[in-house]
Specification:
about 190 residues, mainly beta, globular, Pnp Oxidase, Chain A, homodimer, 7-stranded antiparallel β-sheet, 3-stranded antiparallel β-sheet
């Protein structure tokens, strides 16, 4: 039996994306965004939504570029801080002690201490209610050597990304292996 | 030191969304989608991307409605199967033994055995390369009583949603508590 919760923004799991931008004066800023995900395979694109009141919105409009940084759970406090403070009155990088680095390909800062960075250029925007969705082409993905597996692919356990629970307003870690994709369901193929 | 992986559709975590639709004859179908996420708070909307060649694409265009079902890891094989077979030549529900149910509010089937269902109407589409992104307003969210916590909120551990790893092509479970949102970062606020 299912209970109706009404029209709420519930989904499992939400990611925890940290959007890096420069402002018009070239100052680095970053904000946390949980409303987002991959939206196209070719060209590879990621979409994320930002309210017009956010400093990041102005920066994205100015520069047309961003990074999408994946924090490790070791930096849960810093990642959360990027969603609390505003770049309008706070140098968030300085306040939480993380390091903004210039990125290849795009005019946007990446976060040195975070294990995965997508370097993106904005190719479209879509107005959806109170949010503007930015559609960003992924020009490159940078992954820390320390989180690479022995097979040369990023290892999710070493990355230890955060999951956001929007109803409980808390973060969770990822867990163990659950099955092989495009394989676990073959038993039902006739 | 970071290594460049080039332009790949990497993000942590991807969700595992099962999109339920009826075809023109009212037959229930469902497909797996990992390219998606919440895209607006008000109205509450979810976005997911589908290729035009998919049977679900035709159904979405016909009906303008869908469900977004969150599978539990106990049904990883069935969830994977929804991404392998096509509704054009397979009754996927019958093949994997799951139960399509009519949904409140929308002309789309929900999956009885899955713990969370979003009932949605399509309000916009965006062409992005090889994918079409559907923007769907969430009219209601249904949650199985068995996965509700004692505080009356859905419990992610009981839901046990799947995470998709696109580079390793495997599924993972969610893990334990990692921090309080809008709180863990307050230490950096001056």
């Amino acid at each position: 039996m299912k209970t109706s919760l009404g029209p709420v923004t519930l989904l499992y799991p939400h990611p925890m994306l940290i959007i890096g931008t420069y402002d018009a004066e070239g100052r680095p800023d970053a904000m946390a965004a949980a409303w987002g995900g991959i939206c196209s395979s070719d060209p590879p694109c990621v979409a994320f939504s930002v309210q017009k009141s956010r400093y990041t919105y102005t920066n994205l409009r100015e520069t047309g570029a961003c990074t999408v940084n994946i924090p490790s759970s070791a930096h849960v406090a810093e990642a959360d801080f990027f969603g609390i403070a505003s770049g309008r009155d706070t140098d968030k990088f300085k306040a939480c002690g993380l390091t903004p680095l210039p990125s290849p390909h795009v005019h946007a800062p990446s976060i040195e201490e975070f294990p995965v960075v997508l370097c993106c250029r904005i190719i479209n925007t879509v107005e959806i209610g109170v949010h503007v969705q930015f559609i960003a082409e992924i020009l490159d993905v940078l992954v820390d050597d320390a989180v690479m597996g022995e097979d040369g692919k990023p290892d999710m356990e070493k990355i230890s990304p955060l999951i956001y629970d929007s109803l409980r307003r808390e973060y969770r870690n990822v867990g163990g292996y659950a099955g092989k994709a495009f394989s676990a369901g073959l038993a039902f193929k006739s």
